[in-house]
Amino acid sequence: MNNQQKSPAAVLTAWQILASLGESLMIVDRDYRVIWFKEPLMEAYKPGVNPVGQPCYRVFADRDTPCSSACPVRPMFADGRPHSVERHFVTTAGEEVWREARAYPIVDRRGVVAFAARISFDITHRKKRQSRLEGELMTLERSLEEMNRFQLDELPFQPAGGSPLTKRELEVLRLTAQGLSKPRIAHVLGISQNTVKRHVVNIFNKLGVNDRAQAAVWAARQGLV
Fold first, then answer.
1. CATH of the domain at 101
2. Which residues, including other chains, have CB under 8 Å from residue 29's CB and lie 6 or more apart?
3. Could you tell me the residue range of the domain that residue 25 belongs to?
4. The pairing of beta strand 83-90 with beta strand 96-107
5. Contacts of 173 (CB under 8 A, 6+ apart)
6. 88, 122, 156: which is the final residue of a domain?
7. Is residue 19 domain-shared with residue 117, that is, in the same domain?
8. Percentage of residues of the chain with pLDDT beyond 70
9. What CA–CA distance (Å, rounded) separates 101 from 61?
10. Are residues 135 and 116 part of one domain?
11. What pairs with residue 153 in β-bridges?
């Protein structure tokens, strides 16, 4: 295939590909001098400053020596492998922000690491979502621990005139009453969705109810939620 037949994607240069990655990209040499950069946030906190030719740690961190724990570039140059770090800070408006920075080696023709490509991403949404999920799981674990303290052969877990609920059925009932879907209950308890459905059917039959709302009301009245 000659050049006239190549698609636009086939003739992209390495720099064009790098420039399309991430929100922030910087190339530095082994002396930490910036040789190329794309930093959308640059104008926000240092308008008019051109970092090319200057040490990255001086321009971006106001330091006199290379950064250590706050930047992945230094360890990448030390062992030649990709590294990543996360940073958390609060803006002047009081908003929490998380960013992830990754450093990748760029080697010369001899295979020696000559430059570092530092790519930075905003991961605030991911971190907040992870924090919410971790909090929810902790709440569920505490709920299950509290429920397991009860003796299954004691009231109020035995419906009047019906068969007693098993330990697993109590777990499913409590999570159902807390609003979890069948897939989430299956994930929390480490069982299949079909097994959850079977437990739900058994619970409805034993309680004499027809839906999740009625089961949740029964569980709340018995102090399970």
1. 3.30.450.20
2. 35, 114, 115
3. 3-122
4. antiparallel
5. 165, 203, 215, 219, 224
6. 122
7. yes
8. 76
9. 14
10. no
11. none
